[in-house]
Amino acid sequence: MGGIWELISNLTKNEIPSPRDTWVVFKEVMQNPMQNDPDYKGIAIKLLSSLKRVAIGFGAGSLVAIPVGMLMGSSKIIMNIMNPMVQILRPVSPLAWFPLGLAIFQDSPQASIFMIFICSLWPTLINTAFGVAHIPQDHKNVGKAFGFSIWKNITKIVVPYTLPHILTGLRLSIGVAWMVIVAGEMLSGGMGLGYFVWEEGFNGGSVAKIIVAIIIIGIVGLTLDKIFMSLQKRFSYAV
Amino acid sequence: MVPLPVSEKIKTVSDIKLKPILSQEPSIEIKNITVSFKTPKGVYTAVENISLSVKKGEIVTLIGHSGCGKSTLMGTISGMVKPTSGEVYANEELVSKPGPDRGIVFQNYSLLPWLSVYKNIYVAVDSAIKNKSAAEKRSLVENNLKMVNLWEHKDKLPSQLSGGMKQRVAIARAFAINPSILLLDEPFGALDALTKSNMHVELLKLWNLDNREKTIVMVTHDIEEAIFLSDRVVVMNNGPAATIKEIVDVPLPRPRNKKEIVHDETYMTIHDKLLNLLIDKFSIDDIN
Hints:
The complex is a heterodimer of chains A (239) and B (288). Chain A has one domain: MetI-like (MetI-like fold). Helix content of chain A is 81%, strand content 0%. In chain A, helix 3 packs across helix 9. By secondary structure, chain A is mainly alpha-helical. Chain B is an alpha/beta fold and 288 residues long. Chain B starts with 5 loop residues before the first helix and ends in a 10-residue tail after the last helix. The chains are: A mainly alpha (239), B alpha/beta (288). Chains A and B meet through helix 7 and helix 8 of A and helix 3 of B.
């Protein structure tokens, strides 16, 4: 990896900085990560502000997606009504939602949260609906035969069966949310990692900073994915 | 004096005590049932115009080829299948949905894989029985698990159990809600012959422990199983639109002994009769 990077750096005559130069910039960026002055925020503060927005958008998205997905999965009628809407809205680029959010909230940080909210809906929604729709008849029969209440049906059959599907959806959603936040912050400006990439990296003329940001974004994304993967493992059961 | 063999002793004791229990009271009344399903290829009639009456404490098996509608007929008693016409009465009440007076044991055990053995039974008891305290429900679960010798496995998940153990859990679950009618849908179909044989005896043990008051209806395609367990064997025609071909009485005294019963003349006659009713090809010479 390092060798290829070094080679590319040489070929572009250091337009792309070498690993060593990037490491210097990395240490510089990491120097005072918690610096929280009004005119300059450290990298960790930026990262946390990005994570906070992802958490809010993703959390709200999931709170909507899981119950709606369950409704869709449990009723063919609701599925037939909702599914065309989902299929039309799902492929819309995250960037297209941003101006709409801006129009609704008149506030760019909130618009980027809105964008994350919308984009993190779909994978969870679709996976939850799929899970609920495929609950085996055997499990449903247990509920029927022993007269489970609706609540018991949800907590003892629907949720446990669907949980692995929901977690798969959440894992995909958090990936999308993390991908979208960088774009959102580039558009909204002011805060977060996306702003760092654009303002300090591109406008500041430091490709090394862009690379540093990419690495940080990648590592955080990987960590988020690992967290949800471990949840998935924890809640899968042998049938 | 030559001592009686053990089985003889049991026979004399329990038969005196238990004989009067089999009453004439009807437990299940099936009246002119027809069940049709809508399929993409049109209406499919599974069973047609079936009437059957089962007495309290009786063990009846429904036997027939695969797809002959025996499970469907069973479903109308449990309330899982709605008849297209006709009606079913269980304990003199019209069946419209499953109820706690009818315990069901499914063919594929139908245990919830994410719940322990104990919890699988507890959720069923908790839902089906309304007028008992949590402590009483817990003791019901405990008693029934001990009855099928699975108490030490109570914390295991179904995936950690063998087929026979899973079926015992399913039976304990059905018994735990103390239904007056027990409906078994090919309960031992997935078990090997040895386990199956043990399960037959265990089932009868549970039935005896309960003073033979429970009515048991069982779907099977195993002739030996049907004769060993039941008072009457209902032979069904092949579907679609299956009907009852014949009802064969099994007047063998209880308790029955698996080893001895096969040499009994009545047993052999019934066995032959059922074979003739169910099978039309006995050797390669019979294939046209």
